[in-house]
Amino acid sequence: MPESPYLVIHSERVRENYRALDAAVAVRGDDKARIRFAVKASPVPELITLLDAEGAEFDVASIGEIELCLGLGVAPEKLCYGNPIKKAADIARAYAAGVRRYAFDTEDDLLRIVEHAPGSEVECRFLASTPASQTPFGTKFGCSPAEALRLLVRARDLGLVVAGPYFHVGSQQLDPAAWRIGIQQSGEIAEALAAKDIHITSVNIGGGLPISYAEAAPALGEIAAVVNAAAAEFLPETAGLVVEPGRALVGNAGTIHAEVVGVRIAPDGRRWVYLDIGRYNGMAETENEYIAYRFVTERDGDPVDEAVVAGPTCDGDDVLYQRTRVLLPTTLRAGDRITILDTGAYTASYSSVSFNGFPPLTVHVSGAERE
Questions:
Q1: How many whole angstroms separate alpha carbon 269 and alpha carbon 264?
Q2: Catalytic residue list
Q3: Distance from first CA to last CA of the chain, Å, rounded?
Q4: Regarding beta strands 79-81 and 308-310, do their DSSP bridges make them parallel or antiparallel, or are they unpaired?
Q5: What is the rounded CA–CA span in Å between residue 225 and residue 71?
Q6: 232, 28 Cβ separation under 8 angstroms
Q7: Where along the chain do the CATH 2.40.37.10 domains lie?
Q8: All CATH 3.20.20.10 domain ranges in the chain, comma separated
Q9: What is the CATH number of domain 33-244?
Q10: CATH top-level class for 252-366?
Q11: What is the pLDDT of residues 251-261, one digit of tens each?
Q12: Helix boundaries (H) for the chain
């Protein structure tokens, strides 16, 4: 048995998720969306190779992710440098490596692309008027729709190839209407661009496709129906769809195997269960208790009671759940095994480098079906 904690990702589940999404989202009939895997969700070589073979493109956020993909044989034309926050030197390095697609949301970044990646294809990220997601971006990314229009015209005038507008509904978005809002706003931008003789070729609807954790999420089919209908209603015939899933491809393909380190009754009477995995070695998405993972133990079936769940480090913030109602067996003891379901996304990739001396989360990729 590998040393605890560790993550197992079942590659066949990732393949199934990719094929389901590929079949579900299309603008008109057989006009399928281009699927661009958000590498940051799970930068695991075996998964990148699998998705490359399936026909995926890749959304890369840094030179490190670019080099990872290229080193695995991914063609540079399948990469889009989608992070709007990037240094001029990194744009130049990406361009030298063959990357010809970039996203931006400011004039400064646009001018850096013009200088260091001339002639490239660009998408402008705007802040859509969508409802908040479970893990929202706030206003960190995206300009106004009016500014996106201005910047895309400027991009054309400066010699870049305009792909189209780009929005993101926020990570783990539970309201399908969010995509309709973003696509409608994209259509308005596209119409205004057409009046300036710029005919977009794509609308990037970003990621945000949810999976079910403790709280159930809308099914892919429900969201795809909204996306497909909105695209057919609001987008010009020249425009295809780009979707950038991360969580939706890998989230339910992963299971973390961990161990109970100890159980304590605090002075206020609350029971604390300490695990050998915490916020710094895989459970970063429990920040603000945004994501409520499901736990399975060897003692399921015994009486349960509420517990505060915490990680192993000497950091007071390394607490996973103290407001969320987590029910765990009252018989749990140190040394008991515990599994955390649907942990294939944003776990190992968020794991820190030996904080408090605890190693980053180990990843094992299995070709078998999910356990």
A1: 9
A2: 314
A3: 15
A4: unpaired
A5: 37
A6: yes
A7: 252-366
A8: 33-244
A9: 3.20.20.10
A10: mainly beta
A11: 999 999 999 99
A12: 11-24, 45-54, 63-71, 88-96, 107-116, 145-157, 177-194, 220-234, 247-250
